Amino acid sequence: MAALIKAANAKIRSNPVSNYFLSTHFWGPASNFGIPIAAVLDTQKSPELISGQMTGALVVYAFTFMRYSLAVTPKNYLLFACHFTNAGAQLTQGYRYMNWHYWGGKDKAVPAVAAVPSA
């Protein structure tokens, strides 16, 4: 049985395409794409819900691993794309947080809600 598994593994690893899709170079970034997808979806939610500290931590995380993805050999461009997307989404969230809490976004939203007539 072990010889059969070893032969199947050698056959799979001999093909560069299947070797890539069965490696951590592919599955690591593919599974990590949940973070930027969630961040992009969160841009549609209220800025009241944004945590400034978490957003800052995720920006640092994204830039750190963007650098890491280009420092490893071979370069992992899929991991770079994942963290580039995450950095963009987190920077957007950071802008929304700053706008809401410090640049008058909350004050502008309150009169708009008050101006809506109730039924």
Automatic annotation (TrEMBL):
Family, per entry: Belongs to the mitochondrial pyruvate carrier (MPC) (TC 2.A.105) family.
GO CC field: mitochondrial inner membrane
GO biological process assignments: pyruvate import into mitochondria
Cellular localization per UniProt: Mitochondrion inner membrane
Classification of source organism: Eukaryota, Fungi, Dikarya, Ascomycota, Pezizomycotina
Main localization (coarse): mitochondrion
Topological relation to the membrane, as annotated: Multi-pass membrane protein
Name listed for the protein in its UniProt record: Mitochondrial pyruvate carrier
InterPro entries for this protein: MPC
Keyword annotations: Membrane, Mitochondrion, Mitochondrion inner membrane, Transmembrane, Transmembrane helix, Transport
Role summary: Mediates the uptake of pyruvate into mitochondria.
